[in-house]
């Protein structure tokens, strides 16, 4: 079976059961004037991973393997907005408020869209998720089952919030998850580094981690 050279040890996969999950590479998080920037974050940190993430996505597409995208967003009436997300954050700009790219993190608004550089291809599955994890309140689990996936490579933002939450949810459901360490980022680089260490700690308690080159090398082998 093919392997990706990873931490804490080699990640074994089958071509028939591996897929890529790209978490929340949305304009509201990555572009100036969006939700992330409104919270006072430096979005240029997240912009820096766009080329690597694009290369990773292209590698999966070229290998004929599934690419799944997620978007963190909510219904216009906010009926799916959990209180933790409604009541916390910046008092000056909350989810649902009008922003420079439409209402913040609302489905269908320009800011909730995936950045054009990483736009999904027709036929690629896009999960709109109301939580931080991709399983909560979505058909993500059903889609993974229909595709018969068992190993998931993760990329996207932010490492310690939506990416890590989804990896933990996947791990509890029996999926083997590997994080692409240079295709994920946080507004707080120390949190990205800590999240990666948490994932691989104790013999891979949440999963594996490897750089994009190592992942693509294994896919192309
Ligand atoms: C956050 C995310 N950080 N996609 N969302 O609020 O990680």
UniProtKB/TrEMBL annotation:
Domain of life where this protein originates: Bacteria
Region of interest (Disordered), residue spans: 74-95
GO molecular function terms listed in the Swiss-Prot or TrEMBL record: hydrolase activity
Keywords annotated in UniProt: Hydrolase
Boundaries of every Isochorismatase-like domain copy: 20-206
InterPro entries the UniProt entry points to: Isochorismatase-like_dom, Isochorismatase-like_hydrls, Isochorismatase-like_sf
UniProt feature, compositional bias: Basic and acidic residues: 74-89
Pfam family of the protein (one): Isochorismatase
Protein name: Cysteine hydrolase
Species: Tabrizicola piscis
